[in-house]
């Protein structure tokens, strides 16, 4: 453990500052496909009873029309966050008819491309912007990609904590916003160093339905007529089979400073990419088919395992929000949906993430060179494709070390952060989670990816059948635990309000879509970072 980490933990454990660790927030975004009772993709629109996908704060769609996204409010404790997520699921099922929510990160058996509907947000300029962006994604990556689901974990520490650290470390000459932004970027760099561990411990997509690949070349092995896999994989979702393409391959935003991060993304949303230029922004009938012909249509197209974030204002771009007001929280995007958990993530996983991210935030975090970045990417890629392979090594400080040995070292380095969090709660929830993760390092058969493979091998080897079986189990749970009267009233009111808000946006808007896109692209770019 570094001296910096030791000092910071001691400072935060001391009486004047103990309570500051209670102040951070946790939010979860859970994606899940709507499927028919037979496990095939649903073709119905976003359920009217859920409200408006455009304006509802907690229930929306992501890429495909059938890829629902449930967004919790930000809460101080992950246990509360998961209660809120459970409530959203209960309500969603009460309006879902006979459809099911798919239990896996990788999609069900998929129909032909033309039969996968892109998410629709209504006729307003704002709604069309979101829809056309997704049309562009379909052109660039294919629609199958728009059916992948994940868990996004939004994490922040109390702003007072950063000020306490800044004062202790004599960084008072920096503005609080600058110090906090640098601290979150340092957290992200440490996350990049160690995120392979999350993929080993929580990856749950070692297999997929063969329809996902659309005939693309691959190195996967055949498990059955409809299922492909890699024997030691932890997360094929996070491998090069996921959201990847040539345009993004050279894009690696530098997280050594907020300026360089923003500058890289600003260039990408302004830099033409020849294959996209050949497609054009409109089709032969003059219909918009992508927002731009640049490397990225908007900065959210950059597919990263983690992002610095700031809540945006209406019409504002994410880059502009970061430029203006700095980093507010981080979004961890690499977590697979846990197919054995009804809401897709366990509290134990959340407790470990909290300890892991606190460790990343407080540990020393030197800049990452380009060469170092390539090594970190290789460690991550090895883990997602063969993390359970006996004797697998990763590169640490220029030497090869086994994944198990490094993992055990990391768990011990994280332990003091977990113990501090437990001392605030007066229990051992974080230490218990650490012990469970240590057990997975001792025995790869305890990992979720190994559990998925066992289920497949024991029950006919079909990923589609396994996914449907788990989806039915989760549906039975939520249907036997309907929302309380209070929950139902809360979400019914939100649904009505969101539909009214969408109607008002459509009624009140002025100007045409072409002008709207031009204004969005031009007026809100961060001109401080050419």
UniProtKB/TrEMBL annotation:
Gene3D superfamilies: 3.30.590.20. InterPro entries: Gln_synth/guanido_kin_cat_dom, Glu_cys_ligase, Glut_cys_ligase. Residues 10-381 form the Glutamate--cysteine ligase domain. GO terms for cellular component: cytosol. GO terms for molecular function: ATP binding; glutamate-cysteine ligase activity; metal ion binding. SUPFAM superfamilies: Glutamine synthetase/guanido kinase. It holds the Pfam family Glu_cys_ligase. It comes from the Bacteria. It is an enzyme of class 6 (ligase). The keyword Nucleotidyltransferase does not apply. Pathway: Sulfur metabolism; glutathione biosynthesis; glutathione from L-cysteine and L-glutamate: step 1/2. Keywords: ATP-binding, Glutathione biosynthesis, Ligase, Nucleotide-binding. GO terms for biological process: glutathione biosynthetic process. Its EC number is 6.3.2.2. It catalyses: L-cysteine + L-glutamate + ATP = gamma-L-glutamyl-L-cysteine + ADP + phosphate + H(+). NCBIfam families: glu_cys_ligase (TIGR01434). Belongs to the glutamate--cysteine ligase type 1 family. Type 1 subfamily. This is Glutamate--cysteine ligase. It comes from Pseudoduganella plicata. The lineage of its organism: Bacteria, Pseudomonadati, Pseudomonadota, Betaproteobacteria, Burkholderiales. The gene is gshA.
